[in-house]
């Protein structure tokens, strides 16, 4: 700890805060020393945007991500705030997100508009991200969905000190400077499923899987209990489960259960709130997270539900859904938030 403090003290004498730095990856490390090879940093992790489903499609946290990613968000530091692009629904368009002003004990997060004022970010000694000159307050803490998220002065059990470091070096050989997040929209189901992407780019695959996943959920609203245009996208080993319920061992069984549920609650409707897709193209696995609201079960009650669809790349590089889980959050009366 003494050596760590001495290094930081030296940095505070020589550092000059940069107001602008563009097009870099953001990694975390336990060391305040500069390494020419970013992969040689101790405890190094890449970071990516993460939708915690708390702000209804308007905010992202910054979380650690392990090996196997094909693309990462590329950041810029402009006038004390980080900014990055987020891919829009179905991979169409890009939207600029900005870091929110930093607050103690709260996750570091981004929203879709620039928020001025509050504590701003600085670049210390040319390679460490600070908050108005302080680099010691960053922690990585357990967050929603068992993700490790960046928190300013986090003090919860399990938090560890980590230093965010901008770098132009690729954290892995197959990394490209892109945004892998995607948000499916809430339009009605199509009669045909989206076409399998011919490219292996993570952004294309993420949009494709997000679209398929929402079509499968939105079939509830269309009262489609056959989903013939989607069945080939489900594995023969597919399972579905929810806390306190008997698991389904096939898509057909799940669709039959859906029909029975609608027969019991004819006013049932599913509303899309937010979503995020994570693709591990290198290992052939992906997860689609969709946060929805269920209306009319029974009438007058809204239930917020997290839906998780897990996908695996099988023979001939075809992606198939292997597992579906859903977890109800909380019921509230309609008309109340």
Folded structure, characterized:
The chain is mainly β and about 325 residues long. About 15% of the residues lie in helices and about 40% in strands. The chain folds into two domains: about 1-175, Trefoil (Acidic Fibroblast Growth Factor, subunit A), CATH 2.80.10; about 200-335, Nuclear Transport Factor 2, Chain: A (Roll), CATH 3.10.450. Strands 1-2-3-9-7-6-5 form a seven-stranded antiparallel barrel. The protein has a five-stranded mixed sheet with strand order 17-21-20-19-18, with helices on one face. The longest helix is centred in the middle third of the chain and has 21 residues, at about 200-220. The N and C termini lie far apart (about 45 Å). About 35% of the residues are buried.
Main β-sheet: number of strands, strand sense, barrel status?
7 strands, antiparallel, barrel
How is the CATH topology of the largest domain named?
Trefoil (Acidic Fibroblast Growth Factor, subunit A)
Number of domains: 2
**Architecture (CATH level 2) name of the largest domain:** Trefoil
């Amino acid at each position: 700890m003494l050596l760590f403090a001495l290094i930081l003290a030296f940095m505070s004498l020589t550092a000059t805060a940069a107001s602008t730095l563009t097009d870099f990856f953001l990694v975390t490390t336990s060391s305040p020393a500069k390494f020419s090879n970013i992969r040689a940093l101790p405890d190094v992790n890449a970071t990516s945007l993460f939708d915690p489903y708390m702000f209804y499609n308007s905010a992202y946290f910054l979380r650690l991500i392990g090996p196997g990613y094909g693309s990462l968000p590329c950041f810029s530091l402009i006038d004390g705030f980080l900014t990055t692009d987020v891919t829009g629904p179905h991979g169409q368009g890009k939207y600029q997100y900005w870091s929110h002003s930093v607050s103690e004990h709260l996750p570091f997060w981004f929203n879709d508009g620039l928020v001025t004022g509050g504590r701003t970010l600085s670049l210390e000694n040319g390679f460490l991200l600070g908050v108005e000159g302080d680099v010691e307050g960053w922690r990585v803490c357990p967050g929603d969905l068992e993700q490790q998220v960046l928190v300013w002065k986090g003090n919860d059990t399990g938090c560890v000190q980590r230093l965010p470091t901008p770098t132009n070096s690729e954290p892995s050989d197959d990394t490209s400077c892109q945004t892998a997040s995607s948000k499916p929209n809430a339009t009605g189901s199509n009669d045909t499923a989206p076409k399998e992407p011919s490219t292996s780019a993570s952004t294309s695959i993420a949009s494709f899987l997000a679209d398929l996943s929402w079509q499968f959920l939105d079939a509830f609203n269309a009262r489609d209990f056959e989903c013939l245009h989607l069945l080939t996208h489900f594995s023969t080993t597919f399972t579905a489960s929810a806390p306190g319920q008997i698991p389904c061992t096939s898509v057909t069984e799940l669709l039959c259960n859906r029909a029975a549920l609608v027969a019991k609650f004819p006013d049932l409707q599913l509303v899309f709130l937010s979503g995020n897709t994570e693709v591990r193209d290198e290992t052939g696995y992906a997860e689609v997270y969709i946060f929805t609201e269920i209306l009319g079960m029974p009438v007058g009650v809204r239930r917020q539900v997290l839906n998780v669809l897990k996908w695996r790349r099988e023979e001939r590089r075809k992606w198939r859904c292997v597992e579906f889980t859903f977890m109800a959050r909380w019921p509230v009366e309609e008309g109340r938030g």
